[in-house]
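COURSE: Structural Biology Practicum
ASSIGNMENT: Worksheet 4, Part C
STUDENT ID: 0417
INSTRUCTIONS: Below are two proteins. For each, the amino acid sequence is given first, followed by its structure token string. Answer the questions at the end about the second protein only.

PROTEIN I
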Amino acid sequence: MLIVISIVFAIFGIFQVRFEREKLIDDLKRKASQVAESMDLSVKNILLKGDTKGANYIVNKFETRERLQGCVIYDKKGQIIAITKRFTDWKEKEKPYIKDILDSKITRGKIEKFKEYSVYSYILPILDDDGKILGLVEVIYDTSYAFSRLTDLWKRISITLITLVLLIFIITLFVQRQIFILPVERLTKWFQHFQKGEINEKHPIKESGELGKLASEVEQVALSLRIARKTISEKAQTRMQKEELWTELKLRDLVHAKLGENAFFVVSNREPYMHVIDETTGITKCISPAGGVTTAIDPILRACGGMWIAHGSGNADRKFVNSKNKLGVPPEDDRYILKRVWLSKKEEEGYYYGFANEGLWPLSHNTHTRPIFRESDWQMYKKANQKFAEAVLEELPQNKSSFVFVQDYHFTLLAKMIKEKRPDTTIGLFWHIPWPNPEVFSVCPYHKDILEGMLYCDLIGFQVQNQCNNFLDTVNRLLEARIDSEKFSVVQTGKETFVKPFPISINGYINRTGYSDIKKEISNIRKEFELDDKIVAVSVDRIDYTKGIVERIQAIDRFLEKNPQYKKKFVFIQLGAPSRTHIKRYHDLVSEIDEIVEKLNWKYIDEDWKPIIYLKRHFSHEEIAPFYALSDICIVSSLHDGMNLVAKEYVASKRDLSGSLILSSFTGAARELTDAIHINPYSIEEFADAIKLAIEMPAEEKKKRMENMLKTVSENNVYKWAGNIITEITALKK
């Protein structure tokens, strides 16, 4: 019997090792293909230009990679034109397959013998626009870690087999010695209760001999476990009570622990990096678009890796992707893959500018702008959601669970479209903007389709609890579904969706450039705008009617009327990034702000002083940082905002604890940053008085308030936000 079981187990082990080997090879192929594909465009340009220096620069970047041994670039004749230095001996190896790949133009991935060890070679043909071969790029991976894992697996199988044989042998002895069964049962029962601390009696075995010795050993183990259990419990309690700062490393550890090898995808409309051609110089630049989504999500994928799927909206985006519409980002520091989805002008007009931003955006914000819903826009919205769903489904691995993290109101139908094809996928949706009450949301003619689409998600996150309550009330009023108010979940047609608040944040610091660099930029800005000896207030916004920019300028006007002593002493700088100018309401807003700024400056202009400096263009994070640093006041006066990360960015930039934050009560951030000067942006008198308070507040009080806010932002950073969401959604799947 023992022999039969051993043979069966050994056969099972062989198949398990074989399966694991195939899985590891597939993983190597996937990683190697991603690396090769991310290089496709760069190598293509190098081969077309005959740029040997560029080729050597690319292959030598592999010197610092741990598992990536090397990279080789071949010309169209199969001759090596560049190779990673530490892998120079690869030139001497016979490679008959090179000619076959040049002829067939088909990729090849195989394990190759090299010297005393094996490596994984993946070769990608590089083709020109006419499909003609330009050359090859070969990525070489170290396979030692894979074979090490297989060795460890064999060890575990062997240990398990030995343990199994011993266990069967002991059980056989128990059967032969009936007298041994009952004492062991009593001993086992005693052991279970004693090691948990439920009883204090001695073990029940009175017999001497072998059984008595066993009982004595079990007693020692039970005592050790009892002590260890208590110690671990106390340490766990201490860790729970201790507020540890979340970092990139801590989030990475959590992702690996919770998601393991599962694939991680983020889907959003706005891409984290876009390539645009400068209209003045004609030079192509890579910029980070303005907005809370990119500010919050980019640090997470930098930490954890994965794939971000987004609309390729830059006018030069197509030039920088490979044949699969992918590229590595951030530029010069590939941390994750960006996959761009292309939309036609008609699709973008209907889906993005129409339904999403003329319909859902004003519907969700209490700013008295009338939403517009057109049937043609709704059809484009559905079509765009389907395009993104197909882009996601193309990437989902077949034999591995995946986590798809969807961003915002652009993709209310996406979860349903994915789950219909891949019900095993775990999907979370984070709604960055406010959620209106049921009466307001019922205005949307397509509210049923939107709600049903969203409820295919496993988890829906909002910024604050009040928005969760609004969503649950909306579902309860407009759909036939069961609301569990204790668990904060919705059950519909057998699916349960959990609804939780997750206040979004930033990565805890803003000044990414060096101290000397930012100091120089501050000096340049002060000189350019003549800010020496001036009290400086700053605001940073997309130009949007929800941001309260007009009300802000009116408040500054009233402040100067009430406090003429601050004329020529106070300057307000507005950094405004134009947004959605295709929409009439936004186009009109730009003109309105231009006009009101011009009127106010004309009203107060005195020699070289004017109260408002309005800088209307896109600003990168690096460009914004010195404005935060030099300002005495930051004004966030949104009329309605899900969170508003500008407030948190300003606080994070003030490591010297200087400055004051004026913050609208109608932002999600106001619930966390209680030491800010809160305002009702509609009350111009109150707003103007708040500016004076921010200026005249004693330095010690300013410092204390900023210290409290900085502590809040540092502790509740974006890594903690992401960690909470990942912890929550993995707990739901257990």
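PROTEIN II
(use this one for the questions)
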Amino acid sequence: MEPHSSPSLLWAPLLLSALLAGLSFGFLLHSLRKIRSRDKINTLGWGLAGTVTTACGLWSSQVAALSAMALPWELYFRTEALGLSAAACLVTSALVLASGRLSLHPRGRMTLLAGQIGLLWSLCLWLGLRSLGTPPTGHGAWWLALVLPPMVVVVGALAAAWLALSPRWHQMGPANSRLWLGALLFGLTAGMAQDIALGAQHFVDTLGNVNGLLDVTTAQLAASAGCIVLLLGVFGVMVDNRAHGQNRMLANSLSEANRRLREQALTDPLTRLANRNLFEERLEELLTRLGDEPGSLAVLFIDLDGFKPVNDSFGHVAGDSVLREIGQRLKATARPTDLVARIGGDEFLVLAEMPGGTLGAGKLAQTALDTVSKPYVLPNGVHVTLSCSVGIVMYPDHGPSQKLIANADAAMYAAKRAGGSTFAFFEPSMDHDAREQLQLQHDLRSALDRHELELYYQPKIDGYSSQITGVEALVRWHHPTRGLMMPGVFIPIAERFGLIGALGGWVLDEACRQLQIWQNQGLRMRVSVNLTPQQLQQDDLMDRIHRAVTRHKIDRRLLTLEITESVFMQNKDAALRVLTRLAQDGITLSLDDFGTEYSSYAVLSEMPVHQLKIDRHFVMKLGTSLKAEAIVDGIIHMAHALNLRVVAEGVETEEQRDTLVRLACDELQGYLFAKPMPADRLTLWAMGDDTVHGSPDFRPSLYDDGTELLTAMS
């Protein structure tokens, strides 16, 4: 009997075998993931690539492992047996991939995969040993050669698959990283199994004629071709992973862009609260879920009282900071189930689910009132206090779903008319008021085209000579069905519905037209026009004024523009540039309502104004309040020190007139002298017609020959 020989194993081919086994397993796992795609072409392509590449890799791994055996004689391989082992690897790889599309529980899928890999590896090893020119004799520890290595491979495959595919290992990193980490683990266990299996074999040199056999070098060359196929497959996996990563990044970017677009579409950018779109969306969802159950929800419409003076006096930065803080306060005090939204300007909405009836809704409104009324610290350190008005509707008691917000708005305006800083529940009569406002704004849009607006003029009287020094233009509306309407009725509607800019432009042009008529009649009288905040923000304001002055060919020195301090404070730098250009252009600027804003004296030192008007609030107290007289006296002295003329408006009694004259006020304006009147009546009044004026000390003096003018007018 020939002596038995146990091979010694070379570490380099054995290490190469482990590496090839690991790469093959990694490619197999990647292919198993890809074939579960719904794309049939993708599934077929990765199925074929996975079958060929995995088979080539495992077959090359076995050839490399067999080449690691060092025996006293040369190793040879049987060509047909080596080809049979390659075919077996190909078939079993196809079966493993085919079973990957079975609908199994993840644990069952991983167990089946581990068993199949163990079987595939064992079959490749057994066929590889059978392909040797001198097959093993079967002596030695058979369990080391036939039982333990497959068990090691199965355990390694199960652990590697669990690491690569199980969701519980997500914290270890991306799926691709875990896949190749699992492949490394399988390569180590496969190399260990190869070492155990081959080290336990015994061989006897019975080889005689070697014709038709492959030597080791040729077999290794064949295995090299398999290695190349495997490396190309791994490179394909890397390319696929990169493309998949780029697609995922693109998808994430698109998802993030969609999220931001949705957030922008449904979120108020200033306060980060819900906007009207999201509020209406949530309201519809809530109505669908709750149905018509009485008292199931309430809508609170919150509008700030006194916010405009803060925003106008301290600028939009301060106003925005107040709005942000109010939004935070309302959200902090709202219940977890409530939705707080800002729908524009200083208006907020609260959607309250199951508020607890009218009593509970009233408590929510009172909480909002208390929250808003707490002091605010502006960015410049100034403390201000605001209040709010709240309108409440209960569903379904206060109207259908599509009118809840409109009815809450109507209730809020009812609270404002009651003095503000309170709340009001909707009543059917309020719906009529809301419709009336909508009708008025519709009529006002057409009033300019139908020539329903008219300017009335109120004279200004010289405090020393009692002569007319100028007039203030005040707009009136001749409504076709409501009659003469005062600006206090329709100006707030124009401001609310964005018509104030067009209205202010008409007033400016009409005043210039009338000024031209008076100028042609020989009357040099200043005309004062109020400039609105919207006009001052118009980019073409200077062009509009220039066109009006040029078109009507008037002396621009006779045009006075009255502005409030709030107009200047909305955008200080831009307003200062516009006002400076107006002053340089020869137009007189007047500061209206002086003494009622937050920082009048600081603003006065910067504004290029020529005169200021004392607010009627101080004038009406003259004769009854020493403090009011002291304030007026201080304003007049300060203005004269700055070389400014002073106009007092709202003069209604002779005592007020006498006090202002004594304090050296330059011009007086009020009902004591004349009410606002149309231009033709003003001319008659100026000529001393007793039927249209009752000023006790008026002396007409602005016409050279009043008799000739009256005759011409006749």
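ANSWER KEY EXCERPT:
Q1: The chain has three domains: 8-238, 276-426, 462-709.
Q2: The radius of gyration is 47 Å.
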